[in-house]
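Below is how a single chain appears once it has passed through the pipeline. First comes the sequence as given, then the structure the pipeline wrote out for it. We keep one example in the README because the format questions we get most often are answered faster by looking than by reading.
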Amino acid sequence: MTATQVFEIGGHTDGHGTRMTGRVALVTGAGSSGDFLGTGAATAMLLAAQGATVGVLDIDTGRAEHTRKRIEDSGGRAVALTADITDEEAARTAVDDFAVQAGRLDVVVNNAGISGEGPVVRTTRTGWDKVFALNVTAAMQVARSAYPHLVRGGGGSVINISSIAAQRGFGSGAYAASKGALQSMTIDLAYSWGPDNVRVNCLVPGHLHTPIGDHGGEEGRRMRRAANLLGVEGTAWDLAWAVLFLASAESRWITGTVVPVDAGTTTATVLGILPRFTDTDRKETDE
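Resulting structure:
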């Protein structure tokens, strides 16, 4: 995959299609500021390229507008929305206003999140609460606000974005705990909302090359490639395509799942992965 392809809609294809035609989707944390896209912006762009009207929700107006413009420049339909979704009333107002403006609501992607202060021993109570306020409580507030609109439309799909930090130790403290809570909430909502044909699923991204995960320079990128079973670095588009599947009617009989999008990272042991670093070093030296 070339650098140019990474920034095109879909990453490895042009991403355009009809899988979401006539549908309306809301994506939180979907703002952007340049060509290096996070998962929210990539998801919003791909859903729009597949025919959805997309609500680009972000706390920063400029970032929301940037993604909206990219979508519209590519022929899609989008609305930029600004709100602090950790505030219950602000979250409800943003969801309600978008649903009214778009005429319906079919899909919610709870993508917004922050990483926190690191290990528990270095985490302040204020920092802990801030992470949970966005990563868990805000996701609940957005989903709960969307619920009546989803039911009114005959059902829908809620997709929560977690992290492998919830399943493997990284010393990430509040971030890990909050993402684990998001996975548990996914299962409970799927149970509660299933009778109304509202599906709730959770995606668990691995070590993606995104703005929030861009650490360590080229060496960090090499380690991300080596630390999965495919030896390929993931991007925001890899998560976006998984979201598209769970948002579309193709997954109509799937709910309550927690699905890794990590190139097999969480299926291997440390001892199984370590030799791949050596193999990668040897391969790069030979080249």
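The domain at 8-286 is CATH 3.40.50.720 (Rossmann fold).

See the next section for the split statistics.
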